[in-house]
Amino acid sequence: MRSLLRLLIKNYPFLLFLLLEVISVVFIVNYNSFQRASFLNSSNAVSASIYSWYSGVVQYFRLAKVNSDLTAENADLRNKIDQLEISHMDSVSPVFNNDSTFHYIAARVINNSVNKQQNYITLNKGRKDGVKPDQGIISSKGVIGIITNVSESYSMGLTILNPRWSVSAKLKKSGYYGSLAWNGLDYKRVVLNEIPFHVQLTQGDTVVTSGYSSVFPEGILIGTVETLSRPEGENYYQIQVLLSADFKSVTHVEIIENSKIDEIRNLKRETENAESGN
Amino acid sequence: MQNPVIKYFLMFVTLVAVQVLFLNQIQFSGYINPYIYVLFIMLLPLNAPRYAVLLLSFLIGISIDIFSNTLGIHSFASVFIAYLRPAVIRVITNREEDMSEYPGLAQTGILWFLSYTTIMVGIHHLVLFYIEVFTLNNFFDTFLRAILSSLFSIFVIVLSQFIVFRD
After folding, report:
1. Which of A178, A181, A228, B141 could form a disulfide with A194 if both were Cys (CB 3.0 to 4.6 A apart)?
2. Residue B127 near residue B76, CB atoms below 8 Å
3. pLDDT tens digit string along A3-28?
4. Of residues A213, A209, A223, A203, the one with CA closest to residue A264
5. What is the structure's pLDDT at A36?
6. Which long-range contacts (CB under 8 A, 24 or more apart) does A24-31 make?
7. CB contact B68 to A (< 8 Å)
8. Which residues on chain B are in Cβ contact (under 8 Å) with A8?
9. B34 at the A interface (CB within 8 A)?
10. Which pLDDT tens digit goes with each residue over B36-80?
């Protein structure tokens, strides 16, 4: 017994080493459950406020670019208002589609990365602003990501540049949809899967959100088809999509709240229960 | 900066801040992600008890992890090199040399410090990048990223020895 104890004491660095490595591995493997403990990710009070302070300083250097983006978006919105006014003046369509399913919460990006294998974004809006997990994040130029963790006044999400998340996307022209995911190589490009060979496709086709996931409304820009190939022995195209949003310079985003998401989920659950009951 | 506890505490805070507020933000390309907080582990006193080196390495690793949402990855790589540190020092040190307590560049000489940095940073980055992708697919792609990032980290660490952390 004493010699065993002496052996343990003699080898304590190795045992401590093993212990710490095992803790690390447990962290890595159980990543998602630990991420939910919000003090262990960047939406916790200390790191979020440091990031918030820091981005407040750095933001000044980007103001020119932000201004021009906002101006462009303003112009775009004004055009849309004009078109809407014209179509309403004509009043051909008696049914005014008052689609208030989606609400938007403007937020500022306080931390973001593009060069990791799993990229995350931290925003300065949290629970008290109505942000909840599983809400979509978009910028004026296109889809950014999805909220995963929310603290009192900050929130954190995955971006498209994270293999842990894929978004349901469709080709605007033909309406065929597939899933869009990042392959970890280039922060400007993602891969669109599950588009069968018989679909007519050309370079430059627009890829938008499909609206099937209830996270994003239909038709939000994601990017354009850059290259496409037909791999031998497969049924689906290999499509590279050039993202329209510039993840390196994103500073202002909007969080999309789907006010009917609980209703949709309940419906889904009821359907599944009914099926399993039969 | 006479008190070593204060000195190492300041070094810890500075390196974590530089890492998460500056180096994690610059993003040259997908290939170069320098991690210079390794310097903290390297510069711990050579006669420090091993449990202290291991625990402090875990602490700096987990701090970086919390800021960059990569729980476990940096702590794993940090503890790994902390454990190998005495062996690395044994390998590159001649018997005759009298090692000072603090393994900074000024105390140990450029050649010794450069080989020390290269080995420690190289092992750390290789472990880190393979754990980060958690797969051996794209083996050479990951390898290339680890090597390029190591070169940059080594450069920054050696440079830092001429500017700060001199004592």
Report:
1. A178
2. yes
3. 888 877 777 888 889 999 999 888 88
4. A213
5. 56
6. A24/B58, A24/B61, A24/B72, A24/B73, A24/B75, A24/B76, A24/B79, A25/B72, A25/B76, A26/B72, A27/B65, A27/B71, A27/B72, A27/B75, A28/B71, A28/B72, A28/B73, A28/B76, A28/B131, A28/B134, A29/B72, A31/B71, A31/B72
7. yes
8. none
9. no
10. 999 999 999 888 888 899 999 999 999 998 888 788 889 999 999
Kindly report the nearest CA distance between residue A159 and chain B, in angstroms. Answer: 13
ipTM of the modeled complex: 0.85
Q: How far is A134 from chain B (nearest CA, A)?
A: 18
pLDDT at A35: 55
Amino acid at position A246, single letter? D
Nearest CB to A42; choose among B30, B55, B69: B69
HSE-up (13 A, CA, CB side) for residue A239: 32
Rounding to the nearest 10 degrees, give the CA dihedral for residues A244, A248, A249, A254.
Answer: 60
- Pick from A26, A41, A185: CB nearest B30: A185
Per-residue b or e along A108-142, where b marks 16 or more CB atoms closer than 10 Å to that residue's CB: bbbbbbbbbbbbbbbbbbbeebebeeebbbbbbbb
Sort A50 into a burial class: Cβ within 10 Å, 0-12 / 13-18 / 19+: middle
Closest CA to A253 of A186, A159, A117, A134: A159
The pLDDT score that the predictor gives to residue A241 is 92
For B94, the token pair is 């001649």
Looking at chain B, which residue has its C-alpha nearest residue A117?
B133
Structure tokens at B91: 């390998």
- DSSP state, residue B23: I
Nearest to A47 among B67, B131, B134 (CB): B67
In whole angstroms, give the CA distance from residue A245 to residue A110: 17
Q: Which residues contact A159 (CB under 8 A, 6 or more apart)?
A: A112, A114, A119, A120, A121, A137, A144, A145, A247
CA atoms within 13 A on the CB side of A230: 9
- Best to test chain B binding among A19, A24, A42 (most B CBs inside 10 Å): A24
According to the model, what pLDDT value does residue A246 have?
Answer: 86
